[in-house]
Write a structure and sequence with these properties.
The protein is of the alpha+beta class. The chain folds into 2 domains: 176 residues, 3-Layer(aba) Sandwich (Collagenase (Catalytic Domain)), CATH 3.40.390; 133 residues, no CATH class. The chain is built from 7 helices and 11 strands. Strand 10 and strand 11 form a beta hairpin. Helix 4 packs across helix 6. The chain is globular and about 65 Å long. Zinc ion binds next to helix 6 and helix 7.
């Protein structure tokens, strides 16, 4: 009886141990796969530095991916803080991803954009007939390589949530998870969360697509962020701060959340463009001297001044003014 019980316990333990570890590659497997990938990766990097594809101004997809990568910690932390939203194994993986992101987010070698017309074989796998959209090794020492013309071809350049999913998937490989399927599920969960903190609106004007992305921030002293993008090249990230917005009584901006963002007006005089976006904002300002916090609900408009540089959809950004259109104010 004793024997039976302990055998049972052993089987159970073993089952949990193997299901917990199955998701990661073993150290030896990881090392050998990294050694293989290192050869390919070095060849591609050498070939890339010899070719003239870097100088072309980064397009919308490259800028979206870089921006997301730099802010990815927020969405990983959000996932970790959602109680049982992720299971314990997913949380462990997300914690490892968070470390990598914090280490690499301003490393300009962390993301590499390749043209698969030149690097044709790189995005094809022996076991997988489909052309990959991104690829990396099982270590954060490797860059995440993006098949950038495939991103454009599949219409993902401004599909922010999909791009976020791809980044999370590839980071999962870097922390040692091999299963594409497992990572697709994890990134689908995190994308769902991201989407409740993200929205965008677009409008066509003079044959160009203007779109405004609203990144909602969470937590205390959260200040929402926005990106105005135009066509295939222009990407203008911004937020409201004490230099472009004046709190009452010389207060400091403490938090700002937007609602109902929409394009109010677009104008063009020769090559000069004015783009006006309107939001309702919940704002708190703090005044140290008066030791008070003021809460307000204001209708704000963001007026962007831009100049079209060429037919390549590139604009120069000349500034953005914040003005109050309407407000309701109450002291706390
Ligand atoms: Zn994969």
């Amino acid at each position: 009886m004793m024997f039976k019980n302990s055998l049972f316990a052993f089987v159970i333990l073993n089952f949990f141990a193997s299901s917990a570890f199955a998701v990661y590659l073993s150290d030896t497997e990881r090392e050998s796969r990294n050694a293989d990938f290192n050869k390919i990766s070095e060849r591609v990097l050498a070939q890339r530095s010899g070719s003239d594809i870097i100088g072309n101004g980064a397009g919308l997809a490259e800028q979206n991916i870089t921006y997301l990568f730099r802010h990815l910690d927020r969405y990983l932390i959000l996932g970790l803080n959602q109680g049982e939203f992720l299971d314990s194994q997913q949380k462990e993986i997300v914690r490892k991803m968070l470390k990598l992101v914090l280490k690499n987010r301003f490393n300009d070698k962390a993301l590499i954009f390749l043209n698969s017309n030149i690097f044709e074989d790189f995005f094809h796998d022996v076991l997988d007939p489909e052309e990959r959209i991104a690829k990396t090794g099982f270590s954060s020492e490797f860059p995440i390589f993006f098949n950038i013309n495939q991103v454009y071809r599949t219409g993902l350049a401004n599909e922010v949530s999909s791009l976020l999913g791809i980044l999370i998937h590839e980071l999962g490989h870097q922390v040692g998870v091999a299963s594409h399927h497992y990572l697709d599920e994890l990134s689908a969960d995190l994308r769902m969360l991201f989407e409740s903190f993200y929205s965008s609106v677009s409008v066509d004007y003079e044959g160009l697509e203007f779109s405004f992305s609203h990144y909602k921030e969470h937590g205390r002293s959260a200040i929402d962020r926005g990106v105005l993008s135009i066509g295939k090249k222009t990407f203008i990230p911004f937020s409201v701060n004490d230099s472009n917005y004046k709190c009452p009584n010389d207060g400091r901006l403490h938090s700002m959340n937007w609602q109902n963002a929409h394009f109010l007006n677009l104008e063009k005089k020769k090559d000069e463009y004015t783009v006006k976006i309107s939001v309702w904002a919940e704002i708190t300002c703090s005044t140290l001297l008066l030791n008070s916090v003021t809460s307000m609900r204001e209708k704000l408009s963001f007026e962007f001044r831009l100049k079209k540089m060429n037919e390549n959809e590139e604009f120069n950004f000349h500034g953005m003014d914040v003005s109050r259109e309407d407000f309701k104010r109450f002291e706390l």
